[in-house]
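Entry type: protein chain
Record version: 2
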Amino acid sequence: MGAGPSLPPSRPVRGAGSGVLLGGLTAVVCVAAIGRAWAACDVGINAAANSMTLLFLVPLIWIATSVPWVILHNTLGRRYPHTALVTGLVSTLWFAWFLVTWLGMPDAYPDPFCPGNVPPWWPSYLPA
C-alpha cells in the first residue's frame, strides 16, 4: 500500500481573510438595519435615493470594520488569539450599534411615524 499525497493542514480564516469576512458581514447587517430604520421612519426622499446612499456606504463600512480586525490579528492575535477575538467582536458590535443609531435614527429629522426617532422594531433594552 502506498501513501497518497498528504493534504496541507487546514487553517481557519486568519488575518486579512477574517477582516474581510467579518467586515463584510458587519457592513451588510449595518446597511440592512439602517435601511429598515429609514423605511420605518420614512426618512429620505424616496427608496431609490436611500438605496443609492446605502450602496455608497457599504464599502466604507466594510473597510472601516475590516482594518481593525487585520490590525488586531497582526498585533494582539499572535500572542493572545482569544483576547484578540473577543476585543474584535466587542468593538465590531459597538461600531455596528453606533452606525445604526447615528445614521439610521437622525435626531434632526421630523418624526411623524417614529416617536423619538426610534423605529417601533428597535429593542427597548438598547439605547438609541
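Comment: Residues 51 and 128 are 22 Å apart (CA to CA).
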